[in-house]
């Protein structure tokens, strides 16, 4: 019934939600007929986080309320959310998307790609990013988390809003939506982590919106 995404991905549709169509279960964007077909749903409404700042990447969260529910099957399901303010410190998380490849600038993928990246503690990330073009005064906002920093392994242009999932500390076979791609300095630079929306900061807000809609 609802899809979590980054606010910057859908802000231009703030007053025209009906123009958005959500596609789930996609794998190969260029192949119309596949073994596991995708589903498409129209959007009834968009709910932005109350303190979302369009001019920045702060509080960059939105919920897409679908006109009709998605049908779960063997390749389409939901993802677990973290507890409010839960800290995830896994060394093996995963990002996925169809954005540019790190190796070939300007080349977008046809097939969904997955890359493993480590979480980076907030303090370490802030100090690292202060050594970049962000300057020594950069402060990592509490609505953001960092991951990556390994050469050649990163989200890139076109991956905005894509998921960052990490193993659940209490059940490593289950994954938690830990972040959504927000910003980065280039793609895949050594010791330059990327910045993601911190889903754990918004868990209570997400639950509140779902309760209001009886979802």
TrEMBL record:
Pfam family name, one: Trypsin
Keywords of the record: Disulfide bond
Superkingdom in the source lineage: Eukaryota
Record's protein name: Serine proteinase stubble
Family label: Belongs to the peptidase S1 family. CLIP subfamily.
Peptidase S1 domain span: 1-211
SMART domains, alphabetized: Tryp_SPc (SM00020)
GO biological process: proteolysis
């Amino acid at each position: 019934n609802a899809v979590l995404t980054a606010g910057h991905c859908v802000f231009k549709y703030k007053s025209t939600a009906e123009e958005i169509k959500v596609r789930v279960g996609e794998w190969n964007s260029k192949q119309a007929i596949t073994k596991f077909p995708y589903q498409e749903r129209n959007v009834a409404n968009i709910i932005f986080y109350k303190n979302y700042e369009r001019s920045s990447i702060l509080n960059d969260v939105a919920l897409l309320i679908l006109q009709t529910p998605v049908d779960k099957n063997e390749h389409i399901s939901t993802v677990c959310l973290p507890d409010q303010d839960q800290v995830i410190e896994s060394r093996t998380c995963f990002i996925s998307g169809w954005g540019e490849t790190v190796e070939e600038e300007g080349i977008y993928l046809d097939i969904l790609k997955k890359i493993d990246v480590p979480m980076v503690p907030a303090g370490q990330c802030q100090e690292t990013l202060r050594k970049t073009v962000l300057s020594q005064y950069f402060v990592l906002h509490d609505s953001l988390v960092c991951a990556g920093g390994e050469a050649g392994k990163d989200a890139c242009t076109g991956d905005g809003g894509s998921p960052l999932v990490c193993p659940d500390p209490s059940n490593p076979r289950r994954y938690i939506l830990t972040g959504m791609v927000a910003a980065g300095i280039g793609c895949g630079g050594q010791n330059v982590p990327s910045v993601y929306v911190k889903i754990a900061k918004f868990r209570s807000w997400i639950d509140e919106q779902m309760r209001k809609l009886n979802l």
